[in-house]
Amino acid sequence: MTTRTHLDRLENQSVFIFREAYHAFKNIAMPWSMGKDSNVLIWLASKAFFGRVPFPVLHIDTTYEFPEMLEFREWATTHYKLNLIVKINEEARGRGIGYETHDPVTVTHELKTVALQQAMAQYKWDALITGIRRDEDPTRAKERYFSRRNAQFEWDYKDQPPEFWGQFATTAANGEHVRVQPLLDWTEVDIWRYIQRENIPIPKMYFARNGQRYRSLGCRPITKPITSNADTIEAIIAELETTRTSERAGRAQDHHERNAMQKLRAKGFL
Amino acid sequence: MHSTSSVKHPASSREATLRVVFVGHVDHGKSTLIGRILSDTNSLPEGKLEQVQRACAAENMEFEFAFLLDALLEEQEQNITIDTTQIPFKTAKRNYMIIDAPGHKEFLKNMITGASSADAAVLVIAANEGVQEQSKRHAYLLSLLGVRQFCVVVNKMDLADYSEARFLEIEKKYRVFLKTLNLETDVFIPASARFGENITARSTKMKWHHGPTLAEALDAMTPMAPPTDLPLRFCVQDVYKFDDRRIIAGRIETGMLQVGDELVFSPANKTSIVQSIEHWPPVTAAATSPRANNGIAIAGDSIGITLHEQIFVERGYVASHSKDAPIETNRFHADLFWIARQPARLSHLYTVRLATQEVKCQIVSLDEVMDSSSLERNPTKADQLARNEVGRLTIQTRAPIVLDNHDRLPPLGRFVLVDDGMICGGGIVYDGVYTDRGAIKSKNIFWSEGKITAQARSAQHGHRGAVVWLTGLSGSGKSTIAQALERELFIRAMHPYVLDGDNIRHGLNSNLGFAPEDRVENIRRVSEVAKLMADAGNVVITAFISPYRADRQRARAIAMEGNAEFIEVFVDAPLEVCEERDPKNLYKKARAGEIREFTGIDAPYESPVDPEIVVQTNQQSVDESVASILERLLPRLK
User: Fold this and answer.
1) Any long-range contacts for A230-236 (C-beta under 8 Å, 24+ apart)?
2) Is B77 on the interface with A (CB under 8 A)?
């Protein structure tokens, strides 16, 4: 067959980027949230490397995880034979940082971004493969496939290196790292269509139960389900085709104050 | 824990996403146009329009559609689009990804980043200002980046009284310009993004326009088809040995590849047959994937293959079929656009990246620089290319590179130059010479390009490289003439060098004696060294008896293989004269039988049949001999 679909095109590009990253960097890790995009990443990595994920997979455990997600983590780690690293910001938890007492932007920063920084300091990765997509948020629309972060994790989105003809900025100075983002061109619907086509395992929480489902998954206290009867992938796609509500509407940290997402991202949030 | 449904959903009837880049001069209304499309096609998130309208009211500003895009605070403050953004929208026909490329002059790299992946382009020209510098520049860059499908929106028609005459004037002027770039479109749309005229709805104010609205024009475009009809280029990204398979991973840039195909891997020129195209998950589980089990891969596919014969392959190799192989060279011509702050400099060491190849290189000549506003090419004596300039130049690599001419096979005809890890510019290759791999051995492929090397060097040295081959009996005066000639050339600021028995026999050929086979080898090595030095731009003067015609003929052939000028000089003197001179007492030793097979005594000297120059040292002085050589030689070195 000599035609390719939109999904084929996306898959090919993502696989290409995985391989470029694996070649360019010695010490890579892939953050894994167990969410749908994250699982598509695992799937694409397995495609790129013919059945293995040849670098560690990092779960930043905020300690506010849904039990079903942790269950999925156990299952998938065995299923894909992942080299799983679990990181908790014990120091912040020790100081009493938590949703019970603090605002979501602070907690997200401490338990996710700082935890990631701690893991980076410990493992000295020079590249992180992330599942972010341009359509998720306006700040993400400006991302590159290979996006450099300085030692403070800051992203200089005003002076990004050019990226064209399959050539990327693949060097990181000492202390810097590069975010590699193979899903950048995918949309939410693309992700679902691909999950459907490839039969990719995902947590059950995305599917409607009792008139509610999760469209985006984060920490338990700040992630709200949407009203939905979509209990199959077909129904979810049909729902997304008509909705005009943003995907991350149910994620409180994005909306806590004006420009929350921008602030979080400038500080190193994925 | 497997939660996906097994029910098959019919494939969507909607067409594949089209990636459209919006370009145009700063302030010609691109962002407004995009905001308008998003709004009029109901592609905005719920409440977004109202939210921005409220924000504008609160700030006491007039609402503009452009604000919809300016999601980041900094952009609103500076009122220019900072970086390429990608925004989805949809019509009834298909999904689109808008690539918003900034119009501000300094942000060329962002435009290139956005435009290089586009299927199509929308060029925006404001009706009130007409064709401006960047209207031209961006069109030129699109042509360079290979975006051939586009339409022109003449925006802000509300500021030109919706005048057909004004529209036609701009159309006419722009068409003339586009023609100079070999770009063509039939679609010019008079529009007002601000008031929504001819964007998604047909304008009632411009009934004279019978062409499409912008939405109709976009729906009529087609996504770029994979270039399967071009010759195969499979660019190796890596070789994986995770298990007992040795998988060559990479992307097919053009053409098609099938199990059973014989592939040639350049630059090594090794061949092997494709044994398998590897898949994960194993074929049965991915039966819905269109390429699961037919053993064919096409342009755009990221694949992995195994080979029958385990030849050495590494990242950077390019696999093709043996007919229609790419060019393999160490020197090529290119048009280069420069985006780094630091100018591109002659002789500075850069890294060229072309597909997955990475090779050190230098810009060896800068021939033309394009004027940034008129886009005229002008010959230049400049030795650097500034930011945002485009130059026509020649690049020399330190190792072989595999490429194609851009007009024949775009993916292998474009490259970037990297300095200190940063991409500084991009270029396209032109005028490369294809050679038949079957007919010419790999070593010759370089030298077929080497002729250009000689020209560039001669431009720099002020003369061509050449081999001046002196032949004659021992004592005929070869060494004396060689040294005198060298001095004469040297004081003319040329680059001569003498190869004689002393500097060759004591080093390179110290393992050789005087047996016939050693003499042959001695001359062969001298010939090869002379060729290399001549190719390096020197005038090489050799002073060896070189008694055999066959040896001298071979020396000539070797020099010509390297595209060096070869001048045979017969240093003629009768044997008796030479024997009488006998500067090293060799004739005496030969006559005494102390030396065997001495030329002229007990070994033959075969006089040249048709030498370029003959000097008779029994009749001419050294100076006269040198003068007569110079008279013939100098014109040939120009």
Assistant:
1) A231/A207, A232/A207, A232/B5, A232/B7, A233/A192, A233/A195, A233/A196, A233/B4, A233/B5, A233/B9, A234/A196, A234/B5, A234/B7, A234/B9, A235/A208, A236/A192, A236/A206, A236/A207
2) no
Q: List the catalytic residue out of B546, B621, B625, B628.
A: B546
Listing from the earlier edge strand, what are the strands of the sheet with B188-190? Answer: B85-90, B94-100, B15-24, B120-126, B150-155, B188-190
**Two tokens, residue B576:** 């008796």
pLDDT band for position B12 (cuts 50, 70, 90): very low
Hey, is B446 helix, strand or coil? helix
SS3 of B116, please? coil
Query: Which stretch, B119-128, B221-230, B438-447, has highest mean pLDDT?
Result: B119-128
- Examine the pLDDT at B444 and tell me if it is beyond 50: no
Q: Residues of B with CB below 8 A from A233's CB? A: 4-5, 9
A6-10, A49-53, B359-363, range with greatest mean pLDDT: A49-53
Whole-angstrom Cα distance, residue B457 to residue B535? 9
Q: Which two tokens stand for residue B97?
A: 């990804």
Question: Domain A6-187+257-266 maps to which CATH number in 3.40.50.620, 3.40.190.10, 3.30.565.10, 3.40.50.2300?
Answer: 3.40.50.620
pLDDT beyond 90 at B436: no
Bond into B547 cis (ω within 30): no
Q: Determine the Cα–Cα distance for residues B263 and B170; give it in Å rounded to an integer.
A: 51
Window 230-269 of A: residues touching B by CB (8 A cutoff) are 232-234, 237, 243-246, 259, 262
Q: Stretch B34-48: mean pLDDT, rounded? A: 81
What is the spatial distance between Cα A57 and Cα B587, in angstroms, rounded to a whole number? 83
Residues of A in contact with B117 (CB under 8 A): 164
Question: Average pLDDT for residues B206-226, to the nearest whole number?
Answer: 92
Sequence ranges of the domains in chain A: 6-187+257-266, 202-254
Query: Chain A within 8 Å of B97 (Cβ-Cβ)?
Result: yes
**Superfamily designation of domain B462-636:** P-loop containing nucleotide triphosphate hydrolases (3.40.50.300)
- What is the predicted pLDDT for the residue at A85? 98
How far, rounded to the nearest angstrom, does the alpha carbon of residue B322 sit from its chain's CA centroid?
21
Q: Is B68 helix (H, G, I), strand (E, B) or coil?
A: helix
More confident residue, B352 or B376: B352
**Taking CA atoms, what residue in A is nearest to B223?**
A6
Measured in angstroms, the CA of A65 and the nearest CA of chain B are apart by 17
Cα B573 from chain centre: 53
**Superfamily covering domain B233-320:** Translation factors (2.40.30.10)
Catalytic: B546? yes
**What are the residues whose beta carbons fall under 8 Å from the beta carbon of B258, sequence distance 6 or more?**
B274, B295, B296, B297
Encoded tokens for A195:
């999950």
Q: Measure B534 CA to nearest chain A CA, in Å.
A: 38
CATH code linked to domain B327-453: 2.40.30.10
Q: Is the pTM of this model over 0.80?
A: no
Report pLDDT for B439.
Answer: 43
Query: pLDDT averaged over chain B?
Result: 84
B201 touches chain A (CB under 8 A): no
Whether A185 has its CB under 8 Å from any CB of chain B: the answer is: yes
Average pLDDT over residues B404-414: 93
Picking from A72, A138, A233, the nearest residue to B1 by CB comes out as A72
CB A217 within 8 A of CB A66: yes
CATH of domain B15-219: 3.40.50.300
The residues in B 268-327 lying below 8 A from A, measured between CB atoms, are 278-281, 285-286, 288-291, 294, 296, 298, 300-302, 304, 315
